[in-house]
Amino acid sequence: MFWRRIRERALEPPPAEYPTDARRAGERLADGAPDPEAEGRARFRRRVVGLVVSAVFVAGSVQALFGDQGYLDVVRLRQEQQQLTDELVERRQYVERLRAEVEGLRDDPASLERIARERLGYIRPGEVTFLFDSEGGGLTEAPRN
């Protein structure tokens, strides 16, 4: 019982004979108006928090776009990767064509003869070779060796 009275007394508002201007945060003044100082501090805090959050968002967005490993860097690297992949495919196809040509030269004497005639200009004894101008001009007979 004793503790109950102490608790009730602690929860009671102070008697009117002890006037004070102390009040809890967020309480209104005696005339019912909000406390202008508390309102000003709260408004200032909200503005500061809003500015800090906005600054962090803007800085993060700029970093995400333009920074190292940002969006633009990733797009550039993907384009470079695609170009290198295309070049690799072309080179592999070229290597395969060369391998097929080498195999053809090893196994087929007709291919070897064709290469000798086209690239080296060889002819068999008794054959006549005709050379054409690249400009579509006259026809000349090749010298016989």
The assigned structural class equals: mainly alpha
Rg from alpha-carbon coordinates: 47 Å
The share of residues in extended strands comes to: under 5%
The total of beta strands comes to 2
| Major sheet: arrangement of strands | 1-2
> How many helices does DSSP assign?
4
Compute the separation of the termini in Å. 136 Å
Average pLDDT number: 80
* Main sheet properties: 2 strands, antiparallel
Detailed description of the structure:
By secondary structure, this protein is mainly alpha-helical. Among the domains are: about 40-70; about 70-120. The protein contains four helices and two strands. The protein has helices at about 1-10, 35-65, 70-105, 110-120; strands spanning about 130, 140. The protein has a two-stranded antiparallel ribbon with strand order 1-2. The radius of gyration is 47 Å and the shape is rod-shaped.
Q: Can you tag this structure with a few keywords?
A:
145 residues; mainly alpha
In short:
The chain has helices spanning 2-11, 36-66, 71-107, 109-120; strands at 130-132, 139-141. By secondary structure, the protein is mainly alpha-helical. It has a two-stranded antiparallel sheet.
